[in-house]
Amino acid sequence: MPVRTLALCLDAPMQSWGVRSRGNIRDTGREPSKSGVVGLLGAALGVEREDTGRIADLAGLRMGVRVDREGILERDYHTVQNVPTTTGGGHRTAVSHRYYLADALFLVVLESEDATLLGRIAEGLRKPVWPLFFGRRAFVPARALVGAGQPGEPRSGLGLSDRPLESVLAGHPWLEDRAEVRDVQLKRSEGERDPLRTVVDCRPADPAAEIRPDVPLSFERANRRFATRTVRTGHVSLTDELIRAEEIPCT
After folding, report:
1. DSSP state, residue 60
2. Is 98 within a domain?
3. Residue at 93 is within a domain
C-alpha cells in the first residue's frame, strides 16, 4: 500500500523530551522522543492514558525528525519541602535538576499506510481535545504545528503529503521564521552552511542503527512501560530552495 506522511512544526521557547529521567534528575534528549510525540498526538485526539490500543496505533507510526534549529541545553532547579524521609522519622527538602532545550525548532514527519489515521491526527492538532505542550505543561507551542497556509503566517508543518518520509525531510521548507537569519544563510554558499541533522526510524539491521528506549506501551501513572526502537542519524543540506520556499497551503 502507498504511504502518506504528515509534517509538523515543533517550536517553543522551551521544550523537554526526557527519556531516562530517574529520581531527582529529569533529562531531555536533543530532539523530540517517540514517547513525547505520541503523548502530544494523544492529547490532540483525546486518547486516555489507559487506552493501550490507541497508544499502540500512534506509536506504530514511523517517525523522522529534522533539527531546523539546535536548541541550547539548559537546567533549572526545583525544590519541594516537607518530603518524608525514607526512615519515616522526619521531613526534608528535595532538590531536583530538570533539563530542557531553549530556542529549539524541529520538523517532525510521521509516515503510515493508514491515511485515515494521519488525517485524524492533522485535524486533531488543529483542534486539540486537550491542551498541547512539549514535555512540560508550561512548554506550550509558539506557533501552529500544522500550518493553515495563510499569507503572512509563520512557516509551519505543511501537513499531509503523498511523499515518503525521507523526501519530506529533504525538501520541506526550512522552518526558521527569522528573516535576518535566513538572509545570513542566503549570503553563504551552500557548501559553507551547516547541514540539518536528522533522526529517522530505521530497521534494526541497519549498520548505523542506534537504540532508543522511548516507544510507549502504557502511559498509566502507576504502570508506565516502554519498548525500544532503532534510529539512524543523518543530515540534509540546507539549500537555497529550502530557505526561500514560500508557505504552501496544506491539505
Report:
1. T
2. no
3. no
Cα within 13 Å of Cα(251), Cβ side: 9
Q: For each successive 10 residues of the chain (251 residues), what is the average pLDDT?
A: 92 91 78 97 97 97 98 83 69 78 98 97 97 95 82 82 97 95 95 97 97 94 92 98 69 41
Can you give the pLDDT at residue 81?
A: 65
According to DSSP, the residues that pair with 227 across neighbouring strands are 215
Name the grid cell of 150: 495563510
If one counts the domains in the chain, the total is 1
- Torsion angles phi and psi, residue 180, rounded to 5: -65, -35
Give the model's pLDDT for residue 174.
97
DSSP H or E run through 43: helix 34-45
pTM: 0.90
Query: What gap in Å lies between CA 192 and CA 194, rounded to an integer?
Result: 7
CATH of the domain at 202: 3.30.70.2660
Q: Whose CA is closest to 8, among 124, 151, 99, 103?
A: 124
Asked if 220 and 49 count as a contact pair (C-beta separation under 8 A), the reply is: yes
Q: Domain limits at 44?
A: 4-71+104-244
**How many Å separate Cα 149 from the centre of its chain?**
21
- Scanning the structure block, which residue is given the C-alpha cell 486533531? 124
Cell of 197: 541533522
C-alpha span between 178 and 68 (Å, rounded): 12
Cell of 216: 510507549
Please, are residues 173 and 242 in contact by the beta-carbon 8 Å criterion?
A: yes
